[in-house]
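fyi for ur records
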Amino acid sequence: MITTVQAGSTYHVRGDNPWIIQEDLTAAVEIARHEAMKDGRQGILVTRLGPGSFTVALSTKVPYGTTQEFCQMKSGRQ
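which gave:
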């Protein structure tokens, strides 16, 4: 499921089926790509928050025309 966190720049993808999550991530990245092309200054950052939970966001820290991945999950190991 894709939900809008901030219109035009941040989307949350959540699910429990890996195939549906991948489809939703692809769709969210495509939406973000269209938004990024409007000003040509931001790239796309896909962040894994936890099992089955991701954000797709425009970011000035990512070069325009690129998509980067980041894992924000904390390991259960100490």
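The first strand starts at residue 2 and ends at 6. thats all i got for now
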